[in-house]
Amino acid sequence: MIIEIDFNSDEAIYIQLRNQIIIGIATSRYQEGDTLPSVRQLADHIGINMHTVNKAYSVLKQEGFIKLDRRKGAVIALDVDKLRGLEEMKRDLRVLLAKGRCKNITADEVHQIIDEIYCEYKYEEP
Fold this sequence. Notes:
Blueprint lengths: L12 H14 L12 H8 L3 H13 L3 E4 L3 E4 L5 H21 L4 H14 L6
Antiparallel strand pairs: 1-2
Helix pairs in contact: 1-3, 2-3
């Protein structure tokens, strides 16, 4: 598992870890059913506290990206509740777009950025 944590970032380590795993799922590096390293293994590998990994896994579970299994540990298991996903995305985008608007970023520039990012994930319409 390739995880890159920026220890100088203002972003919390558990959020960075969460984001890296979500991006890994979106880019097909991690597949449905894949088992993530144990909390202890990942903490040792990255050099962080086990509670930090545990918090990231808990958030991923709440958000519907993983399930926690007593025997297997953390397993990629996507909750495909599209309506909930759209509402979460709308909520998150509202703040990002407001920041962009304050910095004079146009709608066309936003659309271009979105298209670039979706290409990275090899997104295909169902």
